[in-house]
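Support request from a user on the community tier.

User writes: "When I paste my structure tokens into the form, the page sometimes reloads and wipes my input. The last time it worked, I copied everything first. Here is what I submitted, just in case something in the input itself triggers the reload:"
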């Protein structure tokens, strides 16, 4: 049997959806692991990552059921593709000023995230070090605390790399989703040879 047939297309769709199920479980597992071991104390960050993982799991599960039962789920997959491609392109298109603005907005929204960043990166404050405020960094507790860097200086060095990495991974998975849309559309239009074998004679 050629690989363009019904069984090969069905198996390809199943394999692609199983890959997405594994990626979604990995997202949920990494978020839970980070929270469990105290790497991330912000419940918002963990909740967003777990939410994305659960959403991806549901889409992959619906896709897997659709592939096994010969149902159409092209529209759902196409909507996910458009959203993911848009977010990936946005990550890759942000310039330095836009990155800095988004970082500062994110910094000001959550004090627990500020403490996490200060403790992990050993820095104090976003754009300036305030010696009258509290800081979770170990450099702030030493005397004199003049050796502490601002968190913006450290974060900005990694922000561009992280956004390019996330954008690249998003583009990779969005094109695999486009492959899934094509396979699902093709699969939808292929007759199941087991349903009416006489139709192919």
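"...and here is what came back when it finally went through:"
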């Amino acid at each position: 049997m050629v690989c363009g047939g019904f069984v090969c297309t069905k198996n390809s769709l199943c394999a692609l959806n199983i890959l997405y199920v594994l990626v979604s479980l990995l997202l949920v597992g990494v978020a839970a692991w980070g929270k469990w071991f105290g790497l991330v104390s912000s419940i918002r960050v963990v909740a967003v990552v777990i939410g994305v993982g659960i959403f991806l799991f549901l889409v992959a599960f619906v896709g897997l059921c659709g592939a096994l039962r010969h149902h159409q789920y092209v529209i759902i997959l196409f909507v996910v593709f458009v959203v993911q491609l848009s977010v990936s392109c946005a990550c890759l298109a942000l310039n330095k000023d836009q990155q800095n603005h988004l970082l500062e907005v994110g910094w000001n929204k959550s004090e627990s995230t500020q403490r996490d960043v200060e403790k992990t990166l050993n820095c104090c404050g976003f754009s300036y070090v305030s010696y009258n405020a509290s800081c979770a960094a170990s450099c702030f507790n030493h005397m004199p605390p003049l050796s502490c860097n601002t968190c913006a200086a450290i974060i900005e060095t990694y922000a561009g790399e992280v956004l390019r990495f996330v954008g690249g991974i998003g583009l990779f998975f969005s094109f695999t989703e486009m492959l899934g849309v094509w396979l699902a559309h093709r699969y939808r239009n292929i007759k199941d040879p087991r349903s009416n074998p006489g139709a192919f004679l």
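Agent notes: The reload is a front-end session timeout and is unrelated to the input. The chain has a mean pLDDT of 76. The CA atoms of residues 87 and 128 lie 31 Å apart. Escalated to web team.
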